[in-house]
Amino acid sequence: PKGDCKFPFGQDLIDLAETGESVHNNMRQVLNENEKYVRLEPTLSKPSAASTDGKQLKQMSAEAEAWEELAEIYQAEVGSETDDARKIERCRRLARIALTRLYKPDEARKWFEEVLARAPEDSEALSNLEQIHTQAGNYKELLEIYRKREARAPSNDTQRRLEMLWKIAWIEEEQLADP
After folding, report:
1. What is the CA angle 27-30-34, rounded to 5?
2. 8-state DSSP, 139
3. Residue 135, SS3?
4. Residue 112: exposed, middle, or buried by beta-carbon count in 10 A (0-12, 13-18, 19+)?
5. 97: how many CB neighbours lie within 10 A of its CB?
6. How far apart are CA 78 and CA 90, in angstroms?
7. What number of CA atoms fall less than 13 Å from residue 89's CA on the CB side?
8. How distant, in Å, are the alpha carbons of 21, 66, 105 from that of 26?
């Protein structure tokens, strides 16, 4: 309840929370008023990444920290994007938002895998997938990542290759071996 805080910053924190809630409500109102851009109604033109309306919605979503709404905008763009490089960048952005802002590693995994499907050498996607699978204990998926890294390591980088081979052996012997 308002005013019942037991710590020194009570009212300031309540005012800050109310301000944050107000910003969020204002963002919701703006997005609802511009629903045609968020939902991409089939009868309306789709905002391109370069359109003023599309840029404004993305900027407002990011400024208001309306990450779910921003993710929806990028998902719509991924679905309509024909340029592979831009599609990869949208997928990468979606993955970053899911991982760092929405704290949804499974959603991030999906988008980083989409990046790898289109750009198999993408080191950011591989690194993030390695982290996601390590934290989740997904050893089969982690094994595949290590195999890709070992295969792509330069032949003269013996230290890197040995590191990957050691990780592969550890997973095969310690994590995936039948007891």
Report:
1. 135
2. H
3. helix
4. buried
5. 21
6. 6
7. 7
8. 9, 11, 28
CA separation for the pair 77, 73 (Å, rounded)? 6
pLDDT in tens, the chain (179 residues): 444 444 444 444 445 555 556 655 666 666 665 554 444 333 334 444 455 456 666 666 665 577 888 788 888 888 888 899 999 999 999 999 999 989 999 999 999 999 999 999 899 999 999 999 999 999 999 999 999 999 988 989 999 999 999 999 999 998 887 76
Instruction: Say which residues have a Cβ less than 8 Å from residue 175's Cβ, sequence separation at least 6.
Output: 139
C-alpha distance from residue 24 to each of 28, 30, 65, 123 (Å) = 6, 10, 8, 35
Please tell me the pTM assigned to this model.
0.62
What's the alpha-carbon Rg for the chain, to the nearest Å?
A: 22
Token pair recorded at residue 82 = 């024909």
